[in-house]
Queue: 3 jobs
Job 1
Amino acid sequence: MSTNAKTTPKSEMPDLAQKVREQVISTVQQGQQLSIDAAQTWVKAVSVLPTPDLPTVPGIPAVPSVEAATKYTFDLAADLLNAQREYALQLTHVLGSDKSA
């Protein structure tokens, strides 16, 4: 599975590193699809079982959905990763500029 230019920015890495990156991402995505397929099969199998409604407790706010909590967590992780990336790039720029002087 190849990635497109929109989602994969071209970097200054050699072509071999780019190919390895694409292969790693493809392998991870295949594994993810297998786990999604397994989860869907499991959900179909247990969907016939009765599930009780959870009681509400006055004064305690409703718990967000699993999907909302997952999105929030990944948004937070992406923000932290972007901050770390910016920090690392600034640091490499500072440390790299001494070599060229």
Job 2
Amino acid sequence: MKKKAPDNLAAECKMVLQLYVTGMSPNSMEAIENVKKICDEHLKDACVLEIIDLYKHPEVAKEQQIIFSPSLIKLSPLPKKTLIGTFQDTEKVMKALGLPLK
């Protein structure tokens, strides 16, 4: 179910993200594609992205207080941030995550 990044990887990593989706819905697929694109283009290898399907793990929604899907949570670096939507506006997502705009 939930995978934790090894301590040494988390220490080297600049950003740890969790993307909560609901199955293969169009919004979920779009969110996955958009977040992966942001990670690939702007974070390179400085990111750990975990994708969690709430249909397969409904208990996680309650544990993590996920109300909307898709939801993206930035766990580190602090402060923790939660974003919702399909994340198609790259500039807004990067700003919300505290990433510099290129």
Job 3
Amino acid sequence: MESNETIEKTKITLSISESKRKRQKGVTTVEYAIMLVLIAIAVMIASPNLSSSVSGVFSNISSLLAG
């Protein structure tokens, strides 16, 4: 039978692991957003015709998030 101290240490370790996993999930979301923006910039530079379309999409998204 485990002592109360061992059980408490296990609980603390599990809660630390959970919080670390949640932080990593948030970081990956931010990384995907940054990659999307960089790809959009590359497309705008490569093809000026698409730049207005991409800018329009980001403008629509930002207005939807603001409102």
